[in-house]
Structures
1.
Amino acid sequence: MKTVIIGGHRIAYYLARMMISKGSHVYLINKDPDVCRELARRLSAIVIQGDGSKKEILDQIELSPEDIVVVLTNTDKDNLIISQMVRKYYGVEKIVTMVNDPDNVEIFRKLGVKAAISPTNLLITTIQSLLFSEEIENLLLMEEGKVVLLRLEIPETSPSAYKSLKEIPLPSESILGGIVRKDDFIIPRGDTQLLPGDRIFVICEPSVQTRVIKILVGE
């Protein structure tokens, strides 16, 4: 199995180093000759200078369906073209593609790029989670022993799955404060629906903790 990394610089280097340590045969493609020289000097990998969106460059690697391709160029258009090419011409299914503009993530997925990752969205989600956690932790410090913070994930079998908050009989001693759904952080309202896979934050009194878990997660 080969790991092919197209574009990128620092990310490409660290990713290649990790994959080499796991025994993968790593190929790197980059347009920049200076970057290529640096990667070749620092890594035990095959480095090809060229445009990864050109089939004649990709042909040099002899890609096969079991290989992994990671696309990291600075242009979403190129990333989409490369992702579609390696799947169409070489049968590669394990494709991870960076999406520079978070608004393009859904477009990539609709066009068949399943592992389309937006660093911007990941940062936003992390920051939102940190801010929310910080507010909760401050509350817990002020109300130590009086409240409990629950972080739960909604399973497919949850009695609350696919229901709106106003339909869920949560006790009055509890508050559902936030939902993390894929790349989004949602502040819930009465008509907000809970879906399997949602990660939720609940503040409640210790006396109703078991009841809240049963309602949201199930037995």
Note: Residues 3-124 form a domain with the Rossmann fold fold (CATH 3.40.50.720).
2.
Amino acid sequence: MAVSGINDNNPYAFLNSTSSTEEKNKDAGTLGMEDFMSLMTTQLKYQDPMNPMENGDFLGQIASFAQVTGLSDLQDSFSTFANSMQSNQALQGSSLVGRTVLIPSSIGNLTATDGLSGRINVADPVTDLKVKIYDEAGVVVRTIDMGAASGYTDFTWDGFDDNGEALPEGVYQFKASGTVDGSNTAFATGVLAQVSSVSISSTDGLIVNLAGIGSASFSEVVEIL
């Protein structure tokens, strides 16, 4: 016995039927320009003949509806564009995993193989640039004498303290300073860190997660090595 509404020759025809129903339900709450014009025609048909709608009012309603519809379409376009940009960011960000980046920071992750490396922006030429390394307790464990320096200056700490003892791997703080016009002056620093993973934030965009020292916005990355 055949069931009404289903094609006997295609046992899967009901799938198309369901899809069509879903599309109708999806569009049921949407008011298009054709629906709007139908409503306007009905409004004109039953308007008060003693107080008819003026042409300006009629055109104004059409213009308002068209403007709202246009803004809605524009919003959908921007949403699609934003999703596309986010996908591209994630794809590009994945290529950073395992790479080393330079970001502004005064903390770094000491490893037995690479030590701890950073960069100092020596804004004013000095003859006694020093880099001091601090442990978690804020105690100076190593002072590196860099001598004369000017501009961007790189440094690497091998992980040994001032007594020649090897210190454990982990996070350490560092500060750079030198004498400028007779005064001890601190300089801005950056750290070299390895990207362990990346993620996408709805507010900050692409986020790079750095081994041992946390995360940073990709916009903070100064250089990719």
Note: The mean pLDDT is 78.
3.
Amino acid sequence: MALSLLFFVTYVLCTRITAEFRGPETSVNPEDDGSDDKEKAKLRSVLSLIDRNGDSNISVKELSAWTQKSMRTFYRQEADGKLSALDTNKDGKVSWVEYVKGAENRGGFTEKQERRDSKRFEHADVNRDGLLSRDELISLFHPEESANMFGVIVEEFMEYMDSDNDGLLSFREYKGKTADTGNTDEHSAKESFKRLDKDSDGKLNKEEMKLWLEAVNTSAQANNQAQRQVQLADDNKVIFRCLV
């Protein structure tokens, strides 16, 4: 959701500037107070952050890099907020006791949720000191961003999706938790299953499921979305003009 919002804002900004700067000439309004020029200046300043090489175009690479940087800044700010809220002894880290206390203050969680979060907490604690730093909190709340979290998340998927408990996901099991829940249609489910099934044995093992996590992290999503947005915005499918 956040990634889509960022790209939507970028697209709107770029298309608006393109229209304003490249549209037909109009007569000057004597009552114009200059507010449009101020707004354009603000838009230029935002887009200059994305246009790293200063060529007045936004490329896929630039849009992807800007989005990744923006999202990771958001993750750090989010983690700072959680750290401030959960770190009751103010030692700059969050213990499991503090984490549980924070959950209780928000209404608590079920035994299953506590067991799940306990495993995530353990894997996020990279230095094994029993405490989570800000960066480790990012891993806890955004496990797709950290390769060391892939194993525990795949285990969660298997527990939820592997109905016959054979340690593998058939297409039926995979589809049952994707297409049938409205997350995607059956055709898309077949295509994604085929891409993940690297050994073409008709089932997904845990290593193949990790590939899915790699495909949904910020870097991969930012690049995919940037390609789509540039393709939508630019006739030549390579770059779109935002500044003149």
Note: The radius of gyration is 23 Å.
4.
Amino acid sequence: MLPPNLLQQIEIEFPCRTQELKSLNALLHVHKFEQVSGGTSSDSVSVRTPSILVYGPSQTGKTSLLKQLLESSDEHNYTYIDCRKCIANRALYEYTIDELHTRDPIVLENGDFNHDSESVESLGAFLSGLQRSLSLPINREKILIFDHITSAHYDDLEGLILSLLKLFTSLSQGQTVIFVTSRYEDILPQIMPTVPFLPYSPDELSLILQETTDVQVDIAGSLIKDSEELRGLWERFCKTFFSAFYDIVGQDIELYRTIAVKLFPKYLQPINDNILSVKNHTQLARSAQTLLVPEPWILAETSLVQTSSSVDKVRVEELSTSARFLLIASFLSSYNPGKTDRTFFSRGKGEKTKRRGGKRAIDKVTRQPQKLLGPKGFSAERMLSIFQAIIPTSFKHTALLDQQIATLHSLKLILKQGASGDLLDDGKWVVNVNLETIIKIARSVQFELNRFLVSD
């Protein structure tokens, strides 16, 4: 159990989550007892809550708070499993065993995984391997976290969870399994302790936004020497900003921070230009009214939070061939009109060009190139159809495509539109790489991109 001073530090970082923090801290406390045999003590026995359910809507701090609590003390030994990376049951089984052994799978050229762990094809084999792994000294008092476990639609999810609960209840070295999910009803909450994360109230969201510390806030107010005055301006701005954007942004605190940090320098512009002083609060609020009208980029942020792509950190050679062709197919899906698919990717003849007055009809896309409009959302079905059309017939890919899609998504090379974290629903995708990068990837697999990309 963390001491009060460490708990207080976490409370400052996660305001309005005091009760949830105390509940998790109490449930994760390890009780140790000495075994007595024949009047003499032997090895100690560690006892801790064998299973915990943490649930609540997205953007309520479940995973962030849990990780911060575990990382604040050396006594916590945990392994985190993001189930969104493992769409199939077998992928989850093997990935979990590898993480417990701290092994890094090697991705082969054809997209297969090559590692020194045994193939785990069934739930029984997974439970046996998991029990062997947890019996190792390195995994004593291990905390195993399954995050987003309801997002991947595993076969017999209830059976999987019941088996894990039974296994961890039988262990005697203080191990705990934690399920983190937004769907309360899918995790059998009646048979394990639960820690609910309720949605933030408007007052709590406003308070959290005011507590934001960002280097860009300090840079924007660099001409204001008094830090207390700068802090007061930021808090007043946040109150006004939050009231104006609550109906648009809703509960997404990260989106509030993103937009507020971008608008704050404009709010301070009259002060930096010596037009108004820091005391003219009413005039500052009036001058900021134009900032509170949602611009197109703000509306775009509400449907797709643009996180910085990690493509610059990923070398092309680290992606499997299947993943590269999937990324190319995603780019073509985002920047080519859907009606051109038959022309580019059909083995038959394409549609005849319609003519008007003896001249080719001017396509609307030709007048407004998609490259200028930005990437457009596409369905996974369309992307996979293009992938099958462009993949060389001589290349035999044996990797599961859903795993490759999950990999590209985890690297933020393709993004899911909307707030849903479920990779298998009917939502839209959007590519998150630029033309220069996709040209580099196309060259690495000897793919003639220009032949299949609509020109300006």
Note: The chain has a mean pLDDT of 76.
